[in-house]
């Protein structure tokens, strides 16, 4: 047995308690049990709090990873869209440059046609935009919308139209150029502006021998130093002294035709020059086998002289 002295409070007398060993062991066991329960509860509480914190951290980390992945996906999508837009913009810029070049070419061809055809430049000014207009629309109208692909399709259609118009203008230019060339190469008219016919083509009495001789051209007499003109446009194949002809100019007009202008006082062109119809090519003189100022005029066809009469007196084109 165990005696326990319990002190009184506020001056009260102490008490003596007698505790049996079995009771004391029971009390100790109860105290130890309570302490064990308290310690186990604290441990479980601490563990629960720790696990909960780790779980929350893991959840936050997982959410952060998901959002980061989505951000990278959006960033990649934006970059892809930007590159695609830039590529489409570059394509539009290239097409626009091509259209501008085609327009410049069409303007040049159109201006040349206008000049060649003798049209009014003010009426056909290819360098100015056409006049457009109209009253302002009233009321609510649907807005025209479109995307880059439809715009590219419109540019393709415009490009096709420009190509057709360009081909048409080039064809017109070719036709006008051919007509102009035909006019230039058409041999017609006299090789002088002032003067008279002094000797015809064919047999005649030679002024030097007095005998009947062949004359392969026609002679036009006039004032010395007056102008000799080309009866058609062409290329000068001879410009200089030639036996019997004196100073002579020969012009090739194409299509097997050529003309000769002889006995000149001076030459105004040289071999290789391109001359136009009616251009002054020499001055009238009396060089070579000649009795006085005149021009001996010959027309050759495929390497043989022919009668110039049909060319001298036919109407010019």
Automatic annotation (TrEMBL):
<dbReference type="GO" id="GO:0004222">
    <property type="term" value="F:metalloendopeptidase activity"/>
</dbReference>
<dbReference type="Pfam" id="PF01551">
    <property type="entry name" value="Peptidase_M23"/>
</dbReference>
<keyword id="KW-0472">Membrane</keyword>
<keyword id="KW-0175">Coiled coil</keyword>
<dbReference type="InterPro" id="IPR016047">
    <property type="entry name" value="M23ase_b-sheet_dom"/>
</dbReference>
<dbReference type="InterPro" id="IPR050570">
    <property type="entry name" value="Cell_wall_metabolism_enzyme"/>
</dbReference>
<protein>
    <submittedName>
        <fullName>Peptidoglycan DD-metalloendopeptidase family protein</fullName>
    </submittedName>
</protein>
<dbReference type="InterPro" id="IPR011055">
    <property type="entry name" value="Dup_hybrid_motif"/>
</dbReference>
<feature type="coiled-coil region">
    <location>
        <begin position="64"/>
        <end position="109"/>
    </location>
</feature>
<keyword id="KW-0812">Transmembrane</keyword>
<feature type="transmembrane region" description="Helical">
    <location>
        <begin position="24"/>
        <end position="46"/>
    </location>
</feature>
<keyword id="KW-1133">Transmembrane helix</keyword>
<feature type="domain" description="M23ase beta-sheet core">
    <location>
        <begin position="215"/>
        <end position="308"/>
    </location>
</feature>
